[in-house]
Amino acid sequence: MDESGNLREILCIGNDITELRKTRDAQLQLLRFQNEMIDTAAIWIDTLDVLGNVTLWNRAAEAISGYTKEEVLGHDRIWEWLYPDPAYREKIFAKAMQILQEHHRVEGFETIIRCKNGELRHISWFSNPILDDSGRSIGSIALGADITAAKQAEEERKTLQEQLVQAQKLESIGRLAGGIAHDFNNKLQAMTGYAEMALVAADGQEPIRSYLVSIQKIVESAGNLTQQLLAFARKQIATPKVLNLNEAISGTLRMLQRLLGENISFQWKPGADLWPIKIDPTQLDQILANLCVNARDAISGVGTIGIETANMPWSDIQPHAKPGVQPGDYVRLSIEDNGTGMDSETLARIFEPFFTTKAMGKGTGLGLAMVYGIVEQNAGWITVESAPEKGTTFHIYFPRSDELPESDRTSMQAAGISSCGKETILFVEDDRLILDIGKAILERYGYDVLALCDAQQAIDLAQSIETPIHLLITDVVMPKMNGKQLSQHIQQIHPNIRSLFISGYTADIIARQGIIDTDVHFLQKPFSVETLAKKVREVLDAPM
Ligand code: ADP
Ligand code: MG
Q: Residues with Cβ < 8 Å from 471, sequence gap 6 or more?
C-alpha cells in the first residue's frame, strides 16, 4: 500500500500440497481397503475399548450372531445378549478383562453364545490386547471361529462309537449265551423224554411218580431259562404272523392286568389306523409281559403303566435314526411307567443278560436281554428314556408289514382227536439221544418209525422203500444238509409226504431264508411226549 492507501503490489505465499493430498488419499484408500478386508473376512472380528464397549463389528460377526453393527457398536450390552446366564457371562467377561488389563492372549478359548434367533453356537476365540506406543492397552481384538458343526459332528461320532461298542458287546455275549443254551436245550430235551418214559414205566407207583413229576417241573423251568437266552441270542425259532398291534395288545390286556395286580392302573392308548406288523404273537407277549413286570417292580405302591401305539412314518424317524436302520415306515409300541426310573449307570447295562438290580431270587436279569433279542430278530429297535424319580419309557419300533393281517388264526386245539396212528414216519435228527426218545415215543403211539441220524442215509432209505412214507420229521439244523433241503429231496421220491420240522435253535439267516415260515409245520424243542404226538397227528390230518 502507498501513503494514500492504494494497492501497489501483492505478496503471494503458495504452499504446494500435491504431495500431502496424495498421502491423504493413499491413507484413505488403505483404510477403506482395510475395512473392506475386515468385513469380507469369513471369521468373526470385533474390537473392544478398555471398558468392554464394542468399537468394531464385522459382517461375519453380524452373520453368526444375528446382531447388526448398528445394534452393538458403542456400548457393552452385547455381553448380556450373547451370554444371558449371569454366572457364565461373569466368567467370560473376566477373561476379556484379563486380556485388556493384564495383556493376556488367548488361543482356542471356547464359549457358547446365544444368537439373536435363540440358537446356541460354539465359538472358538483368538484374542489379544491392542497396545499404544507406550505399551498401554487401548482395547482388544477378538477373532471368533464358528465351530458348531464340528462340535456336533464330534458328539455324534462319540454317541455312534458308544452305540457300536454296546452293540458289539451284546453281540458277543449273545453268541456265547446262545451256544451254551443250544446244547443245554438238547440235553433238557433228552431229560424230558426219559422222565416221561420213566413215568409211564412207573405206572403210578409212589413215591417214584411224584419224584418224576418234580423232575419234569424243574426241567421245564430250566427250559424257560434257556428259551430266554436263545431269544436274547436271536436264536429263538419264530413263527411270525402279520397282525395288528392294537388287536394283539387288547387281547392280552386282561392277562397283563392280572399279572400286575390291583394297585397298578393301566392307560391303554391305541393309535389310530395302525399299520400291520409281522411278528410271532408269543414273542409279542414276551415283550409286553417283561416290560410290564419291570414297570410294576419299579412302582412302589400305587402307580400307572401306559401302553401306547402309533404309526411312525419314515419322514419322522429319519432325522434321529440310528445308523444301520432300514429306511421305511415303522409302528411304535411305547410302555411308560411312573416308577423309580434309572440312573445312567443302570441304563447303560440293562440289556446285558444277568444284569439285575433286584434281590437274589427276585430278578434273573434276562427279561430285557430277551426283549432286546426279540426286537432285533424282528428287524426293529428299542430305545429307553429314564431318569431317577422320573419314571421310564421304553419305545419299540417294528417295521411296517406290507401284507394284510391274518384274521383267521388256525386253531391248534382240534379237540377230541386221538393222537395215535398207524402211519410210517421217517425221523431224521443228528442228536442220537433225541432220535432214540422220539422213536420210542412215536412207536408207543402206534406209528412205524424209521429213525436215522444222517440225511444222506435217510434219502437212500427213502429210495429203497416201496411202501409209502407219510411223514418226515427232521431237525432244521444238521451238519451236511439242512432240514429244508432234506425235505425237498424226500419229496421228489415220495410226493405225498408231509414234513414236520423240529429245532431248539436256528440262526437268523436260516429263519429268514424261509425254512421257518408261516406255512411249515414246526415244533420247538424241548417238547413233551404229548405235544409231539399231538403235533404229528395234526400234521398228518392237515389238508395238503
Ligand atoms: P430283572 O427284571 O430280572 O432284574 P431285566 O433284564 O428285566 O431283569 O431288567 C434289568 C434291570 O433293569 C432291572 O433289574 C432294573 O434295574 C432295570 N429296569 C428295567 N425296567 C425298569 C423300569 N421300568 N424302571 C426302572 N428300572 C428298570
Ligand atoms: Mg425283568
A: 423, 424, 425, 426, 497, 498, 499, 500, 536, 539, 540
All structural domains of the chain, each given as residue ranges with its CATH number in brackets, are 20-146 (3.30.450.20), 156-232 (1.10.287), 241-399 (3.30.565.10), 424-541 (3.40.50.2300)
CB 366 within 8 A of CB 232: yes
Cα(357) to ligand 2 centroid in Å equals 10
Nearest partner of 541 among 521, 515, 512, judged by Cα: 521
Q: How would residue 412 be classed by pLDDT, with cut points 50, 70 and 90?
A: very low
Residue whose CA lies nearest to ligand 1 atom number 23: 295
Q: Could you report the per-residue pLDDT of 120-143, keeping only the tens digit for each?
A: 999 999 999 999 999 899 999 999
Strand, coil or helix: 146:
strand
Say how many Å lie between the CA of residue 335 and the centre of ligand 1.
13
List the grid coordinates of 46: 470385533
Atom of ligand 1 nearest to the CA of 357: 14
State pLDDT tens for residues 15-71: 777 787 888 888 889 889 988 999 999 999 999 998 889 999 999 999 999 999 999
